[in-house]
Design goal:
The chain has 705 residues and is of the alpha+beta class. It contains eleven helices and 39 strands. It has three domains: 162 residues, Methylamine Dehydrogenase, Chain H (7 Propeller), CATH 2.130.10.120; 91 residues; 265 residues, Rossmann fold (3-Layer(aba) Sandwich), CATH 3.40.50. Helix 6 crosses helix 7.
Length: 705
């Protein structure tokens, strides 16, 4: 019987391997149009321009047919359903967010396990009984209406909350009376890129005018405005607080200090650099006064201490400093530097008790310290291991705070923090079937193409054989000052528990080592980011973690650009590529929704200089006919109004027409979803079930479940 079992297993494996060779793909032939643009004397064809019209019947029909091709391929992977079931199994445990207090109430969100959306709970007092305050799972049957933001009034009487449909960046704002959980008639529409900053019985928020019907998810977002909404009144009566028609491509955000004395106005033209204005609300009819003009540096007001403002800035401090600013004399020469720039990057500042809590990044991991108001360091907050401190919540004058902590093998745990005694205790530990002792996390350094040293986290099972045969996933971002710090991920667990190696490099363009590190991966220097990622792949191969036939790459949004550029530049280096919701058409990205705001990182094709470097790496424009590309699964969604799906549509149409190799090049287009935020659990599990199935299959992995 044993011999028969072995023979049966061998036949099964042979059949599966045989099936792998037999999965054939017949692509749809995408229609072309005769569209050519002239960029400073260079003619660039754009034959799939028609796919930019995301609401046309032709594009909708194309989406249906492309999804059919992809689903037919995925359906032939014998363990596709088993992968989805395993994800569902390990996903099913309670998850919590960090609690925060307003008035007598404590608020937090919880997901029981497989709920599509987190539920908002409230407790009266820290030891009160939790009650459901708002359950977004009741908003829609399929879970595609998400709670995307909330703000509690300072007297804890009202809750303002934002909801989004199908993952769109467009939000609606509703209001609830917390005592009695009474929904009020307030309903604010066309809100985008906005907080809700309370003052008295209303709040400030930002919105656009109602967009052209049929172009809600693609037209440029212009003429942002700030309004004040008084609770209980219709939106038509909201008071316009600020606008500037001379600059249609600027965004405006507001905040109000805890004592409601100052309103702060942020002006921005892109994703980095902002101007800063203020108004003293104790002075009637006062207009906004400048604190900082220009957009060369970043400024974030933490709060006020009396008539002064505490501000975190990278002005003449690339790794950031904390300064005290007098609104009446805001010039830099008059600043009082409270915490000067350090070797590590200052990530955030909070006021708690009578202390300043400053969180730093040391080699892309968290460090946290307490200071007094004069900037004297008092103590370090001891963290469990190398990882990321998240969501610190506390208040001035109070000694109790909360924070989260996570790392690659450390599921997100909520801690209660005693400020006076500098002691942390576990408040909520997740109940998850996961043994961290089975896994190993290391951080290495490797040289980039130009010799710059890059740090990289590597996660895998203990006892890994360094034989060059391990399936490996290299994940990256490298842009917009975003830092890739250690975080626990259920989706990633499904890969590493099957023997996979997971690697995350801290690429230039990110924020791990300050503003200079960020700028080293922007504009004409963007190729540094791709070179750093390619060098990470070569390091993993040289150190015998893996080979090109076992190496996958993945990234989303700007990370989708990273993956798209690298798979086009070095197609032989990777076996699998997953560019998710990527920026892939670098010549036209700025023409859609909020794309114009990314020009600080990318530049645009509107200038000859910008065109000359963008055309060299734009993934769409560097696909070469007759080339064998990695097995590719592009992912996007029909309601993505951050990085419009036209990027992915045009890229895959071009790739399918040009590719000459045996690997599948497919696209998975989620319906009723957006850039990723607010996506219901059921859709996430199904999407990652398909991603891992595609990756496992093309890396030759045989999952054990």
């Amino acid at each position: 019987m044993k011999k028969l079992h072995l023979l049966t297993t061998a036949i099964t494996l042979f059949t599966i391997i045989g099936c792998k060779q037999q999965i054939k793909v017949t692509y749809n032939e995408t229609a072309k149009v005769d569209t050519v643009d002239d960029y400073f004397g260079t003619k660039i064809a754009d034959p799939y321009r028609w796919l930019e019209n995301d609401t046309s019947t032709e594009t909708e029909a194309w989406v249906i047919e492309e999804n059919k091709v992809t689903d037919a391929y995925l359906a032939q992977i014998p363990y596709r359903e088993k992968v989805r079931e395993r994800l569902e199994q390990i996903w099913d445990y309670p998850k919590f967010t960090v609690p925060f207090r307003e008035g007598d109430y404590y608020f937090y969100k919880k997901n029981d396990g497989l709920q599509n959306q987190y539920v908002l709970y409230v407790k009266n007092g820290i030891d009160g009984e939790p009650e459901v305050l708002l359950d977004p799972n009741t908003f829609s049957e399929d879970g595609t209406i998400a709670l995307t933001g909330l703000s509690v009034s300072n007297d804890a009487k009202y809750l303002a909350y934002r909801i989004a449909h199908s993952g769109s960046d467009w939000n609606e704002v509703r209001v609830m009376e917390i005592e009695g959980k009474k929904e009020l008639p307030d309903d604010l529409k066309w809100v985008k890129f906005s907080g809700m900053a309370w003052e008295k019985d209303g709040f400030y928020y930002s919105r656009y005018d109602e967009p052209v019907k049929g172009k809600e998810f693609s037209n440029k977002n212009e003429f942002h405005k700030v309004y004040y909404h008084k609770v209980g009144t219709p939106q038509a009566e909201d008071v316009l607080i600020y606008q500037d028609p001379k600059y249609p491509q600027r965004n405006y955000g507001t905040d109000v200090t805890d004592d409601e004395r100052f309103i702060i106005l942020y002006k921005s033209e892109s994703t980095s650099g902002n101007a800063l204005y203020y108004k003293d609300l104790t002075k009637k009819n006062m207009k906004f006064q400048p604190l900082v003009t220009g957009f060369d540096n970043d400024y974030s007001v933490i709060d006020n201490l009396g008539d002064k403002l505490l501000v975190v800035t990278n002005y003449e401090a690339p790794r950031q400093a904390l300064v005290m600013m007098d609104p009446k004399n805001p010039a830099p020469d008059n600043w009082n530097v409270v915490i000067p720039e350090q070797e590590d990057v200052l990530r955030s500042v909070d006021l708690v008790g009578n202390r300043i809590m400053a969180r730093y990044m040391h080699k892309a991991a968290s460090k946290a310290y307490l200071y007094d108001y004069d900037g004297n360091q008092l103590s370090e907050i001891k963290l469990p291991t190398v990882g990321s401190m998240t969501g610190f919540k506390g208040k001035k004058g109070e000694d109790i705070a909360f924070y989260g902590f996570t790392s690659y093998t450390f599921p997100t745990t909520i801690y209660k923090y005693d400020v006076a005694n500098n002691q942390s205790e576990v408040y909520i530990r997740p109940e998850i079937d996961f043994d961290p002792d089975k896994y190993e996390v290391k951080q290495v350094e490797y040289p980039g193409k130009d010799g710059t040293l890059i740090t990289m986290f590597i996660v895998h099972q203990k006892g890994l054989k360094m034989n060059g045969g391990n399936p490996t996933l290299l994940y990256g971002y490298g842009g917009f000052n975003i830092s890739m710090t250690p975080r626990f991920s259920i989706t990633r667990l499904a890969f590493i528990e099957q023997g996979g190696v997971y690697a995350v490099p801290n690429l230039r363009g990110g924020g791990e080592y300050g503003e200079e590190w960020h700028k080293a991966g922007t504009l004409e220097r963007k190729q540094n980011v791709f070179d750093d990622f390619i060098a990470a792949a070569e390091y993993l191969i040289d150190e015998n973690y893996t080979t090109s036939d076992k190496l996958a790459i993945m990234g989303g949004s700007n990370g989708g650009l990273l993956v798209g550029a690298c798979m086009i530049q070095r197609p032989e280096l990777f076996k699998v590529a997953i560019p998710a919701v990527g920026v892939l058409d670098m010549l036209r990205y700025h023409k859609f929704t909020i794309g114009w705001a990314w020009a600080t990182d990318y530049g645009t094709s509107e200038t000859e200089e910008g065109f000359n470097y963008l055309i060299k790496y734009s993934p769409l424009h560097n696909i070469k006919e007759g080339t064998s590309y990695p097995a590719t699964l592009v992912t996007t969604a029909d309601h993505d109004d951050r990085v419009v799906p036209a990027h992915s549509f045009k890229f895959i149409a071009t790739l399918q027409a040009a590719d000459a190799g045996p690997n599948p090049v497919l696209i998975r287009i989620e319906i009723k979803a957006g850039h990723g935020g607010g996506k219901p659990t059921s859709k996430v599990i199904k999407e990652y079930g398909d991603i891992w199935s595609f990756m496992f299959w093309n890396l030759g992995m045989m999952p054990s479940f």
